[in-house]
Amino acid sequence: MIAMGRCLLILCLPMLVLLSGLPAVLHGGQVDAMRWAWPAMLILTSAGWIMGRARLKLTLWISTVAAGSVLLLCVVAAGRAPPPWPMLLLLVIACAAGAGGAVWRSRWPLAFGLLAVAGLAWFVGRASPVRQVADRPALAVITALPLFWREGELGLTARTDALIVALLRRRFDVQPLDSALSPDLRRMGLLMLAQPRGMEAGELVAIDQWVREGGRVLILADPLLLWPSSLPLGDRRRAPPASLLGPLLDHWGVRLAPAETMGEGRHFLPDGSLLTSMAASRFEVREEHCRPEASGLIVLCRIGRGTAIMVADADMIDDRLWLADPGRPLLPQQWSADTPALVMHWLGQSLSGERRWVRSEDDLVRAVRWAALAGILWAGLGWMWFGRVERPIASGQRAAVEGEIGSK
After folding, report:
1. pLDDT (tens digit, 9 = 90+) per residue, 336-395?
2. Is the CB of residue 43 less than 8 Å from the CB of residue 13?
3. 377 or 5: which carries more pLDDT confidence?
4. 144 Cβ contact partners less than 8 Å away, ≥ 6 residues apart
């Protein structure tokens, strides 16, 4: 009966490790091998302690199988292999934790050292928050969205940064402007136009000239803004429901098409980055100096000596579309899309780290199914192989004991 219970434990261990990391994957959609590190450490340490030192080799086999099952899940769910470094760390954590639990009762100093190695590997592989750099270029922001204040409030207490702005401040010296005619714009090389209010002709001419002289502008133009607002319809403090930059875009040979859908959309860019939008549209390009991407959702234009990057959605920077945990916006592991990293990239700054995402619900179900099946099969092979090796040894030891008793 004990042997049967131990056999079931061994066969179920890879599945237990897989299930331990799924809540984090479902929470934000990221496929990160290190999400399984801490649960795997606890599960495999306990399993090693139960199986004991006599089955140390089998424990190491199961630990390797558990890490391999996670690798298979990551590959199938994300459609591409994960980085080798997190998988190596997960393998070290799994083997060290399992071996440490197996030898704990007989060699606790060695077990403590192995568990310390597992903890150190987890510490090295843990996600770090986005850090502020010393050299931050100035970034002008013109917007009607509530990125620098709270809607419905007045006075100095209304000043507060949206979470996307808090992240941008880590790489840029963000300065909100009321008008494109501000002399401060002439001293800056970066500009973000995020669903601004209606501009006068002189302001549009100033932006065009500024870009042609070498400026870099990111334009978020939304034909159907669905940004939640507590202000009543018609309130002048609300952002315009549709983009008012049509004359400028038309001058550059680009037209913003009406919104084609009302729901949320997930867009995978050529480099694997994920952009989440709400009621997004697309651009129609008429000039050769503009290049569309992602089926027209994004357009890159070379205007004179400058660059204009346009996105047919402004809701994308709403933290409800890219952040899984509002309490930890600086931790990329808690994002549900690559929006902050993409905005920084479009503005000329890079953010270290690469995130992999679940392609679809069907891919995740398929990944769990195949990873669990592979883990159970390989665990069963290990049980059969090591059990066959151990049985003759156990039989020989029993015969030697019986012979010694008989001789007495």
Report:
1. 999 999 999 999 998 877 899 999 999 999 999 999 999 888 888 887 877 654 545 444
2. yes
3. 377
4. 195, 196, 197, 238, 239, 240
What dihedral do alpha carbons 329, 331, 337, 343 form, nearest 10°?
70
Cβ atoms within 10 A of the Cβ of 34, count?
24
In this structure, what are the phi and psi dihedrals at residue 383, rounded to the nearest 5 degrees? -60, -45
Q: How many CB atoms lie within 10 A of CB 320?
A: 14
At 236-283, the pLDDT tens digits run 788 999 999 999 999 999 999 998 778 899 999 988 899 999 988 999
Whole-angstrom CA distances from 182 to 140, 215, 298 are: 10, 15, 28
Beta strands (DSSP E) in 11-146 are 138-143
Q: Can you read off the two tokens belonging to residue 203?
A: 């302001």
User: What pLDDT, on the 0 to 100 scale, is given for residue 386?
Assistant: 74
- Look at residue 191 and give its three-state secondary structure: strand
In the sheet that holds 138-143, the strands lie side by side as 173-176, 138-143, 190-194, 216-220, 306-311, 298-303, 290-293
Q: Looking at the predicted structure, is the pLDDT value of residue 110 above 50?
A: yes
For the entire predicted model, the pTM comes to 0.87
The pLDDT tens digits of the residues spanning 298-339 come to 999 999 999 999 999 999 999 999 999 988 999 999 999 999
Q: Which of 246, 153, 235 is CA-nearest to residue 198?
A: 246
Question: What is d(CA 11, CA 381) in angstroms, rounded to the nearest whole number?
Answer: 10
Q: Cα-atom radius of gyration of the chain, to the nearest Å?
A: 28
| Torsion sign over Cα 254, 196, 344, 276 | negative
152: left (phi over 0), alpha (psi -120 to 50) or beta: left
| Helical residues (DSSP H) of 187-245, grouped into ranges | 201-212
Q: What is the mean pLDDT of residues 75-79?
A: 94
